[in-house]
Amino acid sequence: MLSTYTYPKYAYRRPPEIGAAPLRRVPLVVVGAGPVGLAAAIDGAQRGVPVLLLDEDDTVSVGSRGLCYAKRALEVLDRLGVGDRVVAKGVTWNVGRTFHHEREVFRFDLLPESGHRRPGMVNLQQYWLEQFLVERAAVLPGVELRWKNRVVGVRPGQGEAGATEIDVETPDGRYTLQADWLVVADGARSPIRRMLGLDIEGKVFQDRFLIADVVMKGELFPVDRTERWFWFDPPFHGGPGVPASQGTQAGTSVLLHREADDVWRIDFQLGWNPDPRDAEAEKQPERVIPRIRALFDQQGYGHVDFELEWVSVYTFQCRRMKAFRHGRVLFTGDAAHQVSPFGARGANSGLQDSDNLMWKLALVMQGAAPERLLDSYAREREQAADENILNSTRATDFITPKSRVSRNFRRAVLTLAAEHPFARGLVNSGRLSVPTSYVDSPLSTPDRTRAGDEFAGWTAPGAPAEDAPWPADDGGGWLLERLHRLGEGGSGFVLMLFRDLPTEAEREVIDELAGATVPVRTLLVDPGGLAARRYDASPGTAYLMRPDQHVAARWRRLESGAARAALARATGQS
Amino acid sequence: MSELNTQPNLGLPGVRYRHAYAPGDEFYEMLIEAHRGLGDEASELMNARLVLLLANHVGDLGVLRQAIAAARAGISMEPQDG
DSSP strand E in A37-120: where? Predict the structure, then answer.
């Protein structure tokens, strides 16, 4: 029972397919109405693809679970129509501070420059995010969301024209239906992955963390200066089985985050104990409350009252499926890959999976791109998963060192960090989620600039788009928002041309692209503003942007053949 | 006399890093991985060899003297546990 949130109960309706024949065939089924499945359904419907979304439960995420939504995820959520709600309800932060004992040894700022619509990170309990996504999906006629529909069987290719047969269990009995395409978003334990006998491989970490959500009256810091705090060997946490008051024990970490509604999330490292009864014992209020009290006392908040809202003990692993695409079945989110939570790379990467997938799937389903375009989903997001696993694994190895030599090097870094700048950068309490650049993606067209004319900055082909303010005398707002509005209702491809007024030659290319099979709309961008600086653009510079707001190609001069070739590449035609 | 460089200095020549922590993390992982499968004594020996190899590469005795002083500073005489 949470004091700050009431779980909605969504209505179950008897599906018309029960007892009906012949088997109904639908274009797209998404399984799992967590953040990633909901994102896929909303995105698909926005692109004109009707989606049947199935969830085995009838409410949102139990427990606060995923918490930190990074800038890139917020930008995706903006395009799904829930960005404002998430940012308004959640807690914005950019600065993270890391302490060793009582001394600060490292600090990072996720958004060191201004001129972006969204902050580096917003904390929001997963149940709020899901509720907002469900409410958004409910107003889209293209999404049919069925609660208490549990998938119990999947037979790829057994249906008409290669469709997948899906067996669904409901309170009124079972039905089977066929789906041309199946997007799997059924979470870390993925029943569908298991049903299809597919492996997921990687590393399990032998450690445990206790998470406590605490409602607090009173503040550790003012809400507009919220920070993430991480302690290595804090003076107030004694490790497993040691009463909190007994001070430091080597190898213990604590993480503190603020959430919505005056709820605070505190993670305590417990160390490894394979006995599940020990985890149960650790979750008892008599064990948890003294730990929290010790933290608040030491921080000078001993006088503040708090209430325990939710407690859980978690273990973690870093692993992924070998292939995210299996014909007409596509795996997304935790079903495809899992990471340890340090760095917030779970839901953030899942939302980007959906963002990468749905525009491609829509084009394929509409006959505008070949099926092999979906291979690029697998390739790009497998690369992203590897990057997330790499960074999460490195952080986890630093936070939970497993050998004497590893603990020694960590202590060396932490003690050197007090005095020496280079060591601070080695302190790893989590490298927070950032979007992947699809380096070497088959969809990207490599730069072909003349020697001495290379592009500076970070907006190379494959890279995510950089936001920038839109000139106030042209209506204000933000570049990414303009890109999205222009792409909406079309293919989603947009050409950014840095010109006040296109030349006649440019006009011809613009018109040609507008009439292409995958039509491209053009956005004229001020060649003298902050956007131009971020994209290293001079007058005439052109960027072809993908519907997921990654760069497909860019040129110093727009030219018809190159533009058409880049578009063909970006849509899997060549 | 040369000063010991304690500003971030790890990286590959000519490579730009999108995130400043990347080369340091890569080095640290390489270092920890190199000890995989070694017992405590073997690890100690490997670290001693690494100190000597790197010291020779640095070369400048003045810089090495500063490095030794920085490494020694703050280390107490008490036995440390892991």
Answer: 51-54, 68-70, 91-93, 95-100, 103-109
Is A241 within the bounds of a domain? Answer: no
Contacts of B8 in chain A (CB under 8 A): 421-422, 425
List of residues 6+ apart from A98 with CB closer than 8 A? A104, A105, A106, A107, A229, A230, A231, A232, A427, A429
In the numeric block, which tokens belong to residue A284? 């008892």
Last residue of a domain, one of A355, A390, A425: A390
pLDDT value at residue A479: 98
| Of A64, A136, A125, the residue nearest A91 (C-alpha) | A125
Q: Which domain holds residue A507?
A: 472-570
Q: Which residue of A has its CA nearest to B43?
A: A405
Closest Cα partner for A496 from A453, A455, A466, A454? A466
The 10 Å Cβ neighbour count of residue A415 is 18
pLDDT digits (tens, 9 = 90+) for A66-116: 999 999 999 999 999 999 999 999 999 999 999 998 899 999 999 889 999
Which domain does B44 fall in, by range? 1-9+39-73
Contact A165, A171 (CB under 8 A): no
What is the Cα gyration radius of chain B? 15
Q: Is A221 on the interface with B (CB under 8 A)?
A: no
- Would you say A422 and B7 are in contact if contact means Cβ atoms under 8 Å apart? yes
Question: What is the average pLDDT value for chain A, to the nearest integer?
Answer: 93
C-alpha closest to that of A248 among A223, A278, A220, A269: A269
Cα A522 to Cα A407: distance, rounded to the nearest angstrom: 55
Classify the phi-psi angles of B35: left when phi > 0, otherwise alpha if psi is within -120 to 50, otherwise beta: alpha
* 3-class DSSP assignment, residue A571: coil
User: What is the rounded average pLDDT of the residues A349-376?
Assistant: 98
ipTM of the complex in this document: 0.95
Whether residue B22 is contained in a domain is answered as no
Q: How far apart are CA A440 and CA A437, in angstroms?
A: 9
Quote the tokens at residue A432: 């927070």
Three-class DSSP category at A168: strand
In a domain, B51, yes or no: yes
A contact test, residue of B29, B33, B76 with most A CBs within 10 A: B29
Q: What whole-number distance in Å separates Cα of residue B57 and Cα of residue B64? A: 10
> At residue A254, does pLDDT exceed 90?
yes
Total-model pTM: 0.95
A405 touches chain B (CB under 8 A): yes
> Which tokens go with B82?
């892991």
Interface of B with A in 26-65 (CB under 8 A): 28-29, 31-32, 35, 38, 40, 43-44, 47
Minimal Cβ distance to A434: which of B9, B19, B31: B19
